[in-house]
Amino acid sequence: MDDELLDVFDERGWHVGVKPRADVHRDGDWHQAFHLWVVNADGVLLQRRARDKASWPGYLDASAAGHLIAGEAVRDGLREAEEELGAAYAFDDLESLGMHRVDDAERSGVVNRELQHVFAVRDARPLETWRDFDRVELDGLVLVGHDGFLELARALEAGTDRGEDLAVPARAWDGVAVVDARVTPGELVPAPYLSTIAPALRRLGRRR
Question: Which of 12, 62, 141, 178 shows the greatest Cβ crowding within 10 Å of its Cβ?
Fold first, then answer.
C-alpha cells in the first residue's frame, strides 16, 4: 500500500505531481480521499477499523473511506463501498456533502492533509444483514442514532475535555451477533466537518 501512487496538490488545490503514498504522508502533501456515509432512519453506519491497521486502529470511521489513487476521478472512490462494505451503489444515488480540507497529525505522527470528497447514501437494510463487509479491513460495523451522532460530533469538535463523560447508545455488529454498545467521542477518527454534515445525514436517513 505504501508504494501506491497518489496525486498531490498545493495549498490552492492545484495538481502538482504524483508520489508514492508513504512519501505523501511523510512529507504532508495534500492528496484526495473519498468518504461515504451510509444512513437510514435509525442512524449513521460507522465502520470499526481493524485493530491491526497502521492508521487509527480500532477507531470508528465513515462507513467507507479511502484514498483516490493517481488518475482517479472522484466518482471512482465509490469502489471503497464495494471493497469495504460489499455494497454497490450508483454514483447518481449519492448526495454530495462537499469537499472538506482536513489537516491534522495522526497519532503515529504522520502528517495527514486530505481533500476529502464527502458523500452520503440512504440504505435501509437492517444492521445484521451487512454480511459482506471486509473482515480484514474492518472489525465490524456500528449504528449510532442521529441524535447521538450529532452529540459525538459536537463533543469531538469542542475538544476531548468536553466529551469525557459522554457515551451514546449504539448497536454493534461483528458479522456474528448484534449487541448493544456505547460510543464515546474519543472512538471516532476526528474530522472537522462531522457536526456540519450531521443534519444532512439525518434528513437523508429519514427520507421516505
Answer: 62
DSSP string, 20-43: EHHHHHHHT-EEEEEEEEEEETTE
**Per-10-residue mean pLDDT, the chain, length 208:** 88 94 92 98 98 92 97 97 97 97 73 94 97 97 98 87 79 98 95 94 90
Residue 112 confidence (pLDDT): 86
> Alpha-carbon torsion 71, 73, 76, 81, what sign?
positive
User: What CATH architecture applies to the domain 5-205?
Assistant: Alpha-Beta Complex (3.90)
| Three-class SS state of 48 | strand
| C-alpha pair distances (Å), 65 with each of 10, 47, 116, 185 | 22, 9, 9, 19
77-82: long-range contacts (C-beta < 8 A, 24 or more apart)? Answer: 77/33, 77/34, 77/36, 77/117, 78/34, 78/36, 80/34, 80/36, 81/36, 81/38, 81/121
106: Cβ–Cβ under 8 A, 6 or more apart, which residues?
55, 56, 112
